[in-house]
Amino acid sequence: MTADELAAQCAEVMWSTDRASQELGMDIQSMGEGRSQITMTVRDSMVNGHDICHGGFIFTLADSAFAFACNSQNQIAVAAGCTIDFIRPASLGDVLTASAQAVHQGKRSGIYDIRVTNQQGKLMATMRGRSARTQGQLVDGAETD
Questions:
Q1: Which residue of 7, 75, 88, 129 shows the fewest CB atoms closer than 10 Å?
Q2: Positive or negative CA dihedral for 77, 13, 65, 104?
Q3: What is the pLDDT along the chain (145 residues), one digit of tens a residue?
Q4: Are 33 and 7 in contact (CB under 8 A)?
Q5: 39 — phi, psi (to 5°)?
Q6: In terms of CATH architecture, what is 3-133?
Q7: Which residues is 40 bridged to in the sheet?
Q8: Side-chain half-sphere of 42: how many Cα atoms within 13 Å?
Q9: In the chain, what's the furthest Cα-to-Cα distance?
């Protein structure tokens, strides 16, 4: 199978037990080796006292895209650290898209950049994630061409 096909299989395995992303209404738009794109609509329960999307929900969307991207090579990985910069507020009804891309993936650690945009393509937040690979695979016995 190709590296992108393996990434899609890894995403299927992860998604099947990712209750947090599912409950928040996230949807995987695309997957590939070292990359992912996930959307989420800002719902009423996500709006804070300033009538804007709570930053924690934007972080969670970016973190989910990061997780799917850094696990796309069938090596189990977890976040070692993340930093996020909020550029502009998101509002009720906004459709946010988090696009994660590997900057570097070594044997044990990786660096990923994540951009969160709204339905108009405006940049809402940027995040940089550092991943650490643990032992194990998501898809047993899978190999790429």
A1: 88
A2: positive
A3: 899 999 999 999 999 999 999 999 999 999 999 999 999 999 999 999 999 999 999 999 999 999 999 999 999 999 999 999 999 999 999 999 999 999 999 999 999 999 999 999 999 999 999 999 999 999 987 776 6
A4: yes
A5: -115, 160
A6: Roll (3.10)
A7: 96
A8: 27
A9: 51
